[in-house]
Amino acid sequence: IKPFLRVLTHIIEDTAICSGVTFYLRDVLDNLEGAEDDFRHLIEQCEALHSDADKYQEKQMNRTLYVLTVVSAIFLPAQFLTGVWGMNFTDMPELNTPWGYEMFWVITGLLTVTNIVLFCKFGRIRILED
């Protein structure tokens, strides 16, 4: 639109054009300037909408990553114990006991519940907020 506005302004300033046509061209120029302002306003609104959509998407991604981090941190001791008891050693005393499997699950459960309680106590679990 800007190049057309410049051409139209140049034509209006030309003295060879009669006054009736100049009057009409000034009206066209005013309408084009109004349309340019409308376009500029619409572009600003689109940019603001795009920015809001990006902020919303970023907030959702942060929330998802937070939930994954909390779940990973809660079950981290269980993963450690699985790694320790999963090694191929024959001289681990708890492997030869009849209650070794139950001991694993009791310790894992206690550590998981302890982590959940600690996370709740220190305010790190805020899944239901927002």
Question: How would you portray this structure in words?
Answer:
There is one protein chain. The chain is mainly alpha-helical. The chain has three helices and no strands. The protein has helices at 2-13, 19-85, 100-121. The longest helix has 67 residues, at 19-85. The model has no long low-confidence stretch (mean pLDDT 85).
What value does the average pLDDT take? 85
Report helical residue fraction. over 70%
What gross morphology would you assign?
A: rod-shaped
Structural class: mainly alpha
Radius of gyration, taken over Cα atoms and rounded to an integer in Å:
36 Å
Q: How much strand? A: under 5%
What features would you highlight for this structure?
130 residues; mainly alpha; 3 helices; rod-shaped
